[in-house]
Automatic annotation (TrEMBL):
Domain Fatty acid hydroxylase span(s) in chain numbering: 113-250
Record key words, sorted: Lipid metabolism, Membrane, Oxidoreductase, Transmembrane, Transmembrane helix
Source organism (scientific name): Chitinophaga silvatica
Protein topology in the membrane: Multi-pass membrane protein
Localization annotation: Endomembrane system
Gene Ontology CC, one term: membrane
InterPro entries per UniProt: Fatty_acid_hydroxylase, Sterol_desaturase/TMEM195
Annotated protein name in UniProt: Sterol desaturase family protein
One MF term in the entry's GO annotations: iron ion binding
UniProt key word Transmembrane: yes
């Protein structure tokens, strides 16, 4: 009986409908007009879309269990390992840093815009480090390991990534004056959109979302971020507002003539939990062990993925540069020449 109750609780928690069920039991629907009530109505959106995505794939006979199996295993593992780590990290940063805030803000629309821009900056910093520092990439790579895109990918994270991300994001936001209530609201909005942009092609074929593609980061942009195509590597680090990607030159639109290849650049078994979850840590350890001297061992930890003490670097920057040079060196087709 305990097992059944625990399983039921986990299902309700995953679907995000516990508060809605409580409202139905009490019959007090006025609570749905409050801020918390509105959040309770929005929370089930991503799980519902995930179920629709899976159902649609089954209906059209395009469902592949391997596309969803690994994110599901990772989600279950993380539920046992890291349930309270992120909450503790956020609370710790707020308690430690709030008194040092540079600017006092209030819950007004103009401070909300300020807060969201600062949040996106903090998200950019965490996400950029996750791709440019080998140790942090080991935490982030689990999210990039799936070789197809669907809403279950949003649940595929190494258990230490969320606390590390929240320490960076919360610290920057609190120091820049984003007050905690506003920060929690931004986190909720950004988390909901951040989940939605993982929607698969079998639910939304063209992830550009029309005119929105020119205003915000869409599923199309995030599909580019998850690609291992040389042109797409290390791009689109923001989550909703693409301002910082454009400022720092990491913004990249999806090209219509380039098929996206999902996954990470090293050879991986996407159906092996241990390889997906711990593989990058294992290969980092191997590189540290074989590296000569303390300096090289430390450099493997802090340099970008693909850096080598031998000088034979295969970082994303070098791979992309080689790809662009090769593209530039290719002869122009005669049809295009005549058109010029």
């Amino acid at each position: 009986m305990v097992v059944v109750q625990t399983l039921w609780h986990e299902i309700i928690s995953f679907l995000g409908i516990s508060q809605i069920i409580e409202v139905c039991k009490t019959g007090d629907y006025r609570v749905l007009l409050t801020f918390n009530g509105i959040l309770s109505l929005i929370s089930p959106l991503i799980p519902l879309l995930l179920l629709i995505e899976i159902g649609r794939a089954i209906f059209y006979k395009k469902f592949k269990i391997e596309d969803y199996k690994m994110p599901f295993f990772i989600f279950v593992a993380n539920r046992f390992i890291s349930r309270f780590l992120s909450i503790a990290a956020v609370a710790f940063c707020i308690g430690l840093l709030e008194k040092y805030a540079l600017i006092p803000t209030t819950m007004t629309w103009y401070w909300f815009i300020y807060g969201y821009v600062i949040w996106e900056f903090s998200h950019f910093i965490y996400h950029y480090f996750g791709h440019k520092i080998r140790l942090f990439w080991c935490l982030h790579s689990t999210h990039h390991a799936p070789e197809s895109m669907n809403l279950s990918v949003t649940y595929a994270h190494f258990f230490l990534e969320a606390p590390y991300a929240d320490v960076i994001r919360t610290s920057i936001c609190i120091l820049m004056g984003v007050n905690p209530p506003m920060l929690f609201l931004i986190m909720f909005i950004d988390g909901t959109w951040g989940s939605f942009i993982h929607v698969g092609e079998n639910l939304i074929k063209d992830g550009r979302l029309g005119f929105l593609n020119k205003i915000i980061l869409t599923p199309s942009h995030h599909r580019v971020h998850h690609a291992k195509n040389p042109l797409y590597m290390d791009t689109n680090f923001c989550n909703l507002l693409n301002v910082w990607d454009k400022v720092f030159g990491t913004f990249q639109n999806e090209k219509r003539d380039m098929n996206i290849e999902y996954g990470i650049s090293r050879e991986i078994n996407p159906n092996n939990f241990w390889d997906v979850y711990f593989g990058e840590l294992y290969y980092l350890w191997k590189d540290i062990v074989k590296a000569p001297g303390i300096k090289n061992k430390l450099l493997y930890i802090i340099m970008p993925p693909g850096w080598s003490h031998t000088g034979d670097h295969k970082t994303a920057k070098i791979v992309k540069k080689a790809f662009l040079e090769q593209e530039k060196a290719q002869p122009v087709p005669m049809t295009n020449v005549s058109a010029l």
